Amino acid sequence: MDRHEIEGHEVIAGTAKATGNGAHVLVPKDWRGADVKVVRTSEPTDE
Fold this sequence. Notes:
This is DUF2080 family transposase-associated protein. Strand 1 and strand 2 form a beta hairpin. The relative contact order is 0.26. This protein has strands at about 15-20, 20-25. By secondary structure, the chain is mainly beta. The protein has a two-stranded antiparallel sheet with strand order 1-2.
């Protein structure tokens, strides 16, 4: 596993959920319009 350092304001933990041909992660509504980075912290599963 690589180590990454990111400066930011808040951190949330979530699970990527299947949608169409990809996946999405929900974030709080008040994050709309903000720059966001997503970091995968585990191996994907075939769900």
